[in-house]
Amino acid sequence: MNKTYSIIAALAALFTLPTHANWSATVSGVSDYTFNGVSQTQNDPALQVGLDKAFDSGLYAGTWASNVDFGGDTNLEWDFYVGRYQMLTETVSVDYGIAYYSYHGASDSSDGNYPELYTKFGYASDYGASELNFWYTWDYFGTGAKHAIAMVAHTFQLAENHALRASFDVSNSLDSDKWLWQDNETSFYHYRLAYQTSYQGFNIEIAAENTNLDYNTADERVVFGISKTFGF
After folding, report:
1. Residue 155 pLDDT greater than 70, yes or no
2. Distance (Å, rounded) from C-alpha 125 to C-alpha 91?
3. Quick one: 200 exposed, middle or buried, by C-beta within 10 A (0-12, 13-18, 19+)?
4. Which side of the chain, N or C, has fewer Cβ within a 10 Å radius?
């Protein structure tokens, strides 16, 4: 739903609270807000909140916000999304929709706003849960560049209430004249290994991640997150 692979999205499929409510709110704190392994907070902590509405048809809508720090006056990311989740078979699911990412804090913060389409496939088996996820935008961070992200992930159930999630994703600029990564590269990769559990209604994640970018905001790191979801 949101463009990060933070504790909110990563734990939702594993440790959903036992409730039949159509509304849910999630509050989380993370030691670093990373997007594909790149810190959005200059390696500092973030407070994040989300609100979601689900419908019996599988449709959902929601909003999510986090503090950010890109080195200027922009200090808030506020996202909106609408999509649909459905089971294709007893073991295969699909989640697809559109999100809009907006930025606030400075007079020019909105220049970085952009929309994004996403499709996420899931497969559940006796060996855990596998994912194949895609994101695409035609205006990456307001630059007009087409940009795509592909991710593969698998969650291993170690024991009851203990899981290990491994993921690998590649970010690709499809317009090199509008957006490039390090050393004029059009792409970079990111890998992540996260231990996930829950305690007393709180979801907990400890993750190690790294990229092949040579930025101090994208090097190897350990990220800790804790969240709580309320149904109403």
Report:
1. yes
2. 7
3. exposed
4. C
Q: Which residues are paired to 229 by β-bridges?
A: 26
Whether residue 14 is predicted with pLDDT greater than 70 in this model: the reply is: no
- Please give the torsion angle defined by the CA atoms of residues 226, 30, 1 and 135, in that order, rounded to the nearest 10 degrees: -140
Task: Quote the CA–CA distance of 68 and 152 in Å, as a whole number.
Answer: 26
Q: Where are the domains of the chain?
A: 7-231
Structure tokens at 77: 């990311």
**Class for domain 7-231, per CATH?**
mainly beta
Nearest to 145 by CA among 106, 180, 188: 180
Task: Express each pLDDT in 96-133 by its tens digit.
Answer: 999 999 999 999 999 999 999 999 999 999 989 999 99
Task: Check residue 8 and give its pLDDT.
Answer: 39
